[in-house]
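Please fill in the sequence for the structure shown.

STRUCTURE ENCODING:
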C-alpha cells in the first residue's frame, strides 16, 4: 500500500507534533532519551516551551541527529518583552518559525483593559519578530480570555485589536472548550488567524470555568473526553493552521499518548 493509499479518506492524514510539556518530567531527567522515545512514536515535530537546562544549540544538535525539528518555541510573557532578541536568537537556533506565548499575567478577572494592553504588546513584539527576525508570533489561548464582551468575548477583542500580518494564534482546543466555547466555531470565525493547534481532550463530567486552570488528570487521551474532535479537525482543515501538536498534561502519557496517536489515525471523513 502506498502512502497516498494509506492516508486516503483520513480526516487527519499526518502525524502530529508534540509539545515538550507533555514529557516535561522525562525531559528534566534525560533530554536525548526523551527525544528518542518521542521519535519511536513516529513524531518528529516538537514545540519546545522549555530548554530543560540545555542551550538552544545543544537541543538543535540532538534534534538534527534524530531527523527531528522544532517548529515553535514557547516563552513567557516577560521574556517576550524584555528579552526579545535573545528569544528570537534561540528560536532561530532551534529552527523554529514561530514564537509562542501561552499566558498573559493578569489580575482576575481578565478585563477589557488587560485585553487591550496585551493586544498592544502583541502588535509591538510581533512586528519586531517579523521585521527584524522573520519569525511569526502566536498567542495561545488559555481560557480566561473568553469573558463576555459586547456581542462576543475578550478573546474576540484581542483578535480584532491585533494586526493579522504580525500576530497569529495557537488554538488550544481544551482551553477553548473549558470556558464554554466551541473550538470548531472559533476556527470558522477566524479561519486565517490560527497557525498552530494544541490537540487535547477533557475528561467527561468535568465542568469548566474562566479560571484557565484544571487538574492535570483531567487531560485524557484524544477521543476519550468531551470534545468533538472530528468537527474541530474538519474546521481546521479549512483554516490556516500549519502545525498540530499533542499536549497531554496528565501523569498518564505512557498510556494516553499512543492511544491519542491511534485515535487520530483512525478518523475518517465519513
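FILLED IN BY: designer on duty
SEQUENCE:
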Amino acid at each position: 500500500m502506498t502512502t497516498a493509499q494509506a492516508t486516503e479518506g483520513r480526516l487527519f492524514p499526518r502525524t502530529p507534533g508534540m509539545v515538550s510539556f507533555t514529557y516535561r518530567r522525562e525531559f528534566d531527567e534525560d533530554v536525548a532519551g526523551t527525544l528518542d522515545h518521542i521519535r519511536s512514536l513516529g513524531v518528529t515535530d516538537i514545540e519546545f516551551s522549555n530548554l530543560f537546562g540545555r542551550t538552544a544549540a545543544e537541543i538543535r544538535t540532538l534534534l538534527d541527529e534524530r531527523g527531528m525539528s522544532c517548529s515553535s518555541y514557547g516563552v513567557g510573557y516577560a521574556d517576550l518583552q524584555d528579552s526579545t532578541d535573545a528569544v528570537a536568537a534561540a528560536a532561530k537556533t532551534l529552527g523554529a518559525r514561530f514564537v509562542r506565548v501561552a499566558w498573559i499575567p493578569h489580575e482576575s478577572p481578565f478585563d477589557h483593559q488587560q485585553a487591550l494592553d496585551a493586544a498592544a504588546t502583541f502588535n509591538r513584539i510581533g512586528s519586531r519578530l517579523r521585521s527584524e527576525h522573520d519569525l511569526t508570533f502566536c498567542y495561545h489561548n488559555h481560557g480566561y480570555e473568553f469573558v463576555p464582551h459586547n456581542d462576543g468575548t475578550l478573546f474576540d477583542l484581542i483578535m480584532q485589536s491585533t494586526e493579522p500580518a504580525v500576530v497569529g494564534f495557537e488554538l488550544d482546543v481544551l482551553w477553548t472548550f473549558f470556558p464554554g466555547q466551541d473550538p470548531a466555531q472559533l476556527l470558522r470565525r477566524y479561519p486565517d488567524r490560527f497557525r498552530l493547534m494544541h490537540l487535547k481532550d477533557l475528561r467527561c463530567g468535568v465542568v469548566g470555568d474562566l479560571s484557565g486552570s484544571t487538574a492535570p488528570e483531567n487531560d485524557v487521551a484524544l477521543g476519550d473526553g468531551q470534545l468533538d474532535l472530528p468537527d474541530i479537525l474538519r474546521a481546521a482543515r479549512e483554516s490556516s493552521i500549519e502545525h498540530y501538536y499533542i499536549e497531554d498534561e496528565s501523569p498518564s502519557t505512557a498510556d494516553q499518548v499512543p492511544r491519542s496517536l491511534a485515535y487520530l489515525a483512525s478518523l475518517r471523513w465519513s
